[in-house]
């Protein structure tokens, strides 16, 4: 469904750009190729995949699960989804903000950006920060759900 929505939005926006006779519109040949790829490849593959999926037997769980659902205790304030989303986004953004500022400033002032080694270092810091935030937030969630004992 998502590719269809994206394709429809792209097609409508391109039609509006064509209506304004802008040079930014996708050429007719390219648009025809995209429509052909969509209806010639993507749509048939969706139907083939659904046909194969319906013919397969139902997936069985590899282990027995408890029929009685486990009660999840009330979550503390720091496990609120809004707070988790903000923390999960602010810390990685803070790790890359200065370098992003330098890159955008050099683009806006029509200058060359030549500190690619430093950019690689900042990218590695971003990856480590994202990994650490993911581990910490998942630990907090598992700690609430399963009630891990606190170390004394």
TrEMBL record:
UniProt entry keywords in alphabetical sequence: Endosome, Golgi apparatus, Membrane, Signal, Transmembrane, Transmembrane helix
Subcellular location, record wording: Endosome membrane; Golgi apparatus membrane
GO BP annotations listed: protein localization to membrane
Any single Gene Ontology cellular-component annotation: endosome membrane
Main location per the UniProt record: membrane
Pfam families (alphabetical): EMP70
Cleavable signal peptide: 1-19
Bilayer topology: Multi-pass membrane protein
Transmembrane segments: 29-54, 82-109, 115-140
Family: Belongs to the nonaspanin (TM9SF) (TC 9.A.2) family.
Protein name: Transmembrane 9 superfamily member
Native species: Citrus x changshan-huyou
């Amino acid at each position: 469904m998502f590719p269809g929505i994206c394709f429809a939005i792209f097609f409508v926006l391109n039609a509006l750009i064509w209506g304004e006779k802008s040079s930014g519109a996708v050429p007719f040949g390219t648009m025809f190729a995209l429509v052909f790829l969509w209806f010639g490849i993507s749509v048939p593959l969706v139907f083939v995949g659904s046909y194969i999926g319906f013919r397969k037997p139902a997936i069985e769980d590899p282990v027995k699960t408890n029929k009685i659902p486990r009660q999840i205790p009330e979550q503390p304030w720091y496990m609120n989804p809004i707070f988790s989303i903000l923390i999960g986004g602010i810390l990685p953004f803070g790790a890359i903000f200065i370098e992003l500022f330098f890159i955008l400033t050099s683009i806006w002032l029509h200058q060359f950006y030549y500190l690619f080694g430093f950019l690689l270092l900042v990218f590695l810091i971003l990856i480590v920060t994202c990994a650490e935030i993911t581990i910490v937030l998942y630990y907090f969630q598992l700690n609430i759900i399963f009630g891990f004992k606190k170390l004394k």
